[in-house]
Design goal:
The structure holds two protein chains of two kinds. By secondary structure, chain A is α+β, with helices and mostly antiparallel strands. Helix content of chain A is 26%, strand content 19%. In chain A, strands 1-28-27-26 form a four-stranded antiparallel beta sheet, covered by helices on one side. Classes of the chains: A alpha+beta, B alpha+beta.
Chain lengths: 842, 97
């Protein structure tokens, strides 16, 4: 490649000497101009270092002649003293190169040269750019202008050649420098990453003739118009004019080089998301919650009513059904969402933890595990609260599937036969024909209850599907650890709660005022209160260490609402009766405080007639109490049944004396129950195989029921019908209906298991009976085809009517058999009682 | 924790229950009483169905949410308790005596 030096910017001296040198040059210039290339150099700046590109050192001369550069060897300037003061040009042009160029210039009279030069210039220009690293700065030179204005500097070859020497030296230096730099490059540098700065060069104006617009009205208008017309003439004359030759030019087509770059593969993935309505809703919720929590952090309590986001404003602020915590925020339309957040915040027990609040939205309680469960940690899932509750529901559902028919019966629904049930059901005989009977629905039993004796039953006062069952042996000999289980109707397979006690459980009762409190009486006389909301096995209160504790088994417990003497509020107290002869009242205000309501004293009874008991010495003055019942209408009066067989009517106001005593039973009285319909009538059952019906005013029982030769453990009045009651004796379950018969029960059922039936209770929301036995089974029996109960207002009357009839018949009997003592039964005499045998009814 | 285990055991031993499957959010069964292929099949299919059901419920009312899903068929009943992190599936044949 020919590296031609380019003439660089000249000093302005050029102009001065132009006159001198141009003459000589002019000829050349003329010849030069033949080539149509006259250089018109616009020198920018001065004395710039020629920038040599490492790639190509094409330099084009085409420069304004530096006539101001004398001191070529032929032209030497000597001063007076003969020193050679020829000013050296800054640029040293390689003479060889220039000569080459020169020959090109002169010899090649084609239009190629200028183009050559042009191209070289252009290349040079590109070179300029790259070589700017040398710090010379971009050198801008004007390119040859194709102006027709040939005046001005023209190229001077000889000068060029001559000039070339000087530049050569200078070039040499520079080049040397350049080469110095080059020498420093070595193999390692080849690998170096070279930073190339690409900048835009300054615009090179090839021709800048801005048009001038002149208004027609000015003075110049005439001249301008003239000029225009002259120009037009010129243009016209140009055609075919000899002084004008048209020349066409071709520029070299620069060889194109293709540069390929390879990058590592750009991976593409497509992601698509569907946004549902609820997706958007959720997002809004989250945003809103975050906002609200943040605002709560600033304010103390969350009763701000921030205007909700527009989306929320449209949507009703109803809690989704997840728990609303105890956060008591104002429930207004706008701040309802803040209520939700409050509850979340208080639930998560942190106002500052906004993330946990936000996260807990979905899962309720388990806020932390939500974020962590991205790890596949099964323990986390299994332990989460939500999982527990889901399991619970699932279990219920499964049970429901299995027991669906029975439960429907319990509730009194009609069973719809399962459409997919392919089993063929044999035609059953009509149930109605059989008369009143039982239908065994299911029984509550589980592994833990095997072999345990059901000692007591208590329905929950607020949830009629929940029943508490106490398990404990009656006999002294066979004591085991006691159990209290809470069974629910919806799950006959497993109890909802299990509490173990160290002693056998003999009594249990749910509280009315606080329906989650369950009081349990134990065989050793202790009373414990459990909160069934908790599943822990600990009682929340117990009186094991209290001084007033009963020293003998607590046979009955009841929560009684008493009216305080002074105030008007009814407080609930627990009353217990036990074999140590004391009826104790426990209040649970602070701990367990006891107060003896009554000491049951033994009363001598003369069996009259045959045997005379004269003041036998008592071992203990106390009679063991086995049961009691408070009058439903007057909570001050209660009945207590003793081991002696006596029933005493007592009042809470007197704790020394009985108001009344009822004699009739010859064995320990196991249960006493007031009738729910008739305020003066009560029923008692005892180990003497009998059940007796009493009237409050009569010392002697009105009706006696003997149905078996086994002790009767439990009785229960039916809540629906005043004349119906159920009794359970060792071998069978019996239901009596006084309307139908006072001699025999209408239903007797002997369970096949052979276990002793020990407790019975009617269910409140269904016509079913629950019977517990000594094997730990609690059976649910449905009463069918019972006589319809009398209407509500008639209940009492019907019972009283029966009583009256029996009384009158008694009287008749009495009067018939012993006319001498007509009114004996009517009096309240405590001594000289007629023998029991008179009490038998016809 | 043991309470949960006990409940799972009880459910397993309940009358008519063929199997219980617990699947986590990624579709991997954590606990199952059926064989592997059945489990995988159930979990995959039920997962989709539960998601669709949930989407339906929420589309109708965004404040609502799916709590329980029961599919009754001739032979079985499949009960699904869906949640964000897991899926609890129980298969019962209630017609068995």
């Amino acid at each position: 490649m020919s590296t031609n030096k380019s003439k660089k910017s000249q000093h302005m001296l050029t102009t001065g000497n132009t006159g001198a040198s141009t003459t000589s040059k002019k000829s050349h210039g003329a010849t030069k101009s033949k080539y149509g290339a006259s250089v018109r150099g616009t020198q920018y700046g001065s004395s710039r270092v020629t920038v040599l590109s490492s790639a190509s050192k094409t330099r084009s001369l085409a420069n304004a002649p530096d006539a101001g550069k004398p001191a070529k060897p032929p032209v030497q300037i000597f001063d007076e003293s003969g020193n050679d003061v020829t000013p050296l040009p800054l640029y040293l042009i390689d003479p060889t190169l220039v000569k080459q160029n020169k020959s090109n210039l002169l010899g090649d009279s084609s239009g190629g040269t200028p183009t050559d030069l042009m191209s070289q210039t252009s290349i040079y220009n590109t070179g300029t750019v790259t070589a700017s690293a040398f710090g010379g700065g971009p050198f801008t030179r004007s390119v040859f202008s194709q102006s027709y204005d040939t005046a001005g500097e023209s190229m001077a070859e000889p000068e060029d050649t001559d000039q070339s020497h000087e530049p050569t030296s200078a070039w040499g230096e520079i080049r040397r420098k350049h080469e110095d730099v080059k020498e420093d490059l070595n193999e390692g540098d080849l690998e170096k990453i070279v930073d190339l700065q690409l900048t835009e060069t300054e615009t090179i104006w090839l021709l800048d003739m801005p048009g001038i617009c002149v208004s027609l009205e000015t003075d110049e208008a005439a001249t301008v118009q003239k000029k225009n017309e002259a120009y037009k003439e010129l243009v016209k004359n140009k055609q075919g004019n000899d002084s004008y030759a048209e020349r066409g030019m071709n520029t070299f087509n620069e060889p194109q080089k293709c540069k390929l770059v390879q990058t590592s593969k750009i991976g593409y993935t497509e992601m698509g998301v569907n946004a549902n309505t609820w997706d958007m809703f959720d997002t809004f919720e989250l945003l809103d919650k975050a906002n609200k929590v943040r605002s709560e952090d600033d304010d103390e309590e969350g009763t701000i009513s921030r205007p909700g986001s527009p989306k929320e404003g449209e949507v009703e602020k109803v809690d989704e059904g997840t728990d609303t915590g105890p956060g008591g925020a104002v429930v207004r339309e706008k701040s309802a969402a803040s209520v939700r957040v409050d509850s979340r915040a208080t639930f998560a027990s942190s106002f500052a933890g906004s993330e946990s609040v936000v996260a807990s939205r979905e899962t309720g309680v388990s806020s932390m595990p939500t974020s962590e469960s991205s790890q596949i940690d099964e323990n986390v899932i299994l332990q989460s609260e939500k999982f527990k509750s889901d399991l619970f529901i699932m279990e219920r559902v499964i049970n429901l599937n299995t027991y669906q028919a029975k439960q429907a019966l319990y509730r009194g629904f009609n069973i719809i036969k399962d459409i997919d049930d392919t089993t063929v059901v044999p035609p059953q005989q009509l149930v109605q024909d059989m008369g009143p009977n039982f239908d065994r629905l299911w029984s509550y039993t589980c592994k833990g209850t095997q072999g345990r004796n059901v000692s007591c039953l208590s329905w929950n006062k607020s949830n009629p599907d929940l029943i508490a069952v106490g398990y404990g042996q009656f006999e002294f000999s066979n004591q085991k650890e006691g159990l209290v289980m809470c069974w629910s109707l919806k799950n006959p397979e497993f109890p909802e709660r299990v509490y173990t006690c160290k002693e056998g459980v003999t009594a249990a009762d749910f509280s009315k005022v606080n329906p989650s409190l369950l009081a349990v009486g134990l065989y050793d006389g202790g009373v414990a209160v459990y909160n069934v909301r908790q599943t822990s096995d600990e009682p929340i209160l117990d009186n094991f260490l209290a001084p007033g504790k009963n020293t003998a088994p607590v046979w009955q417990l009841k929560w009684i609402e008493k009216e305080r003497g002074t105030g008007d509020e009814t407080a609930e107290v627990l009353v217990s009766i036990s074999t140590d002869g004391r009826v104790c009242q426990w209040s649970i205000r602070k701990g367990f405080e006891s107060y003896d309501l009554m000491r049951l004293k033994k009363i001598p009874t003369r069996m009259g007639g045959k045997k005379e008991k004269k003041g036998e010495a008592f071992i203990s003055r106390h009679a063991g109490g086995l049961c009691f019942d408070f009058n439903p209408h007057d909570s001050n009066i209660y009945l207590a049944g003793t081991e002696d067989g006596h029933i005493h009517k007592c009042s809470c106001s007197y704790n020394e004396q009985f108001l009344e005593s009822y004699f009739g039973h010859t064995g320990p009285v196991y249960k006493i129950k007031w009738s729910p319909f008739a305020p003066d009538v009560f029923l008692s059952c005892s180990a003497d195989w009998s059940i007796r019906l009493w009237h409050q005013d009569k010392v002697r029982p009105i009706l006696n029921f003997f149905s078996s030769t086994k002790p009767v453990y439990d009785i229960a009045w039916s809540p629906n019908s005043s004349t119906v009651f159920a009794s359970v004796n060792e071998g069978s379950v019996e239901v009596w209906d006084l309307n139908t018969s006072t001699l025999d029960p209408i239903i007797i059922m002997e369970p096949s298991s052979g276990a002793r039936q020990t407790s019975v209770s009617f269910s409140k929301n269904s016509d079913c009976l629950l019977v517990g036995d000594s094997e730990g089974q609690l059976t649910v029996l449905q009463l069918r085809s019972m006589a319809p109960p009398p209407s509500r207002d008639k209940q009492m009357d019907s019972l009283l009517k029966i009583i009256n009839t029996s009384l009158s018949s008694q009287l008749q009997n009495q009067s018939a058999s012993e006319p001498t003592q007509p009114e004996r039964e009517e009096t309240h005499l405590e001594d000289d009682l007629p023998p029991d045998t008179d009490q038998n009814q016809s | 924790m043991s309470e949960v285990e006990e409940t799972i055991k009880r459910i397993q031993s309940h009358k008519g229950v063929s199997g219980i499957i617990i699947v986590n959010a990624d579709g991997i069964p954590i606990r199952t009483t059926l064989d592997n292929s059945t489990t995988v099949q159930y979990s995959g299919l039920i997962h989709q169905l539960a998601a669709k059901a949930k989407s339906t419920v929420r589309d109708l009312d965004p404040q609502n949410d799916l709590t329980f899903l029961r599919i009754r068929s001739k032979k079985h009943e499949i009960m699904v308790a869906p949640d964000k992190e897991y899926l609890l599936i129980v298969i019962q044949s209630p017609n068995e005596v």
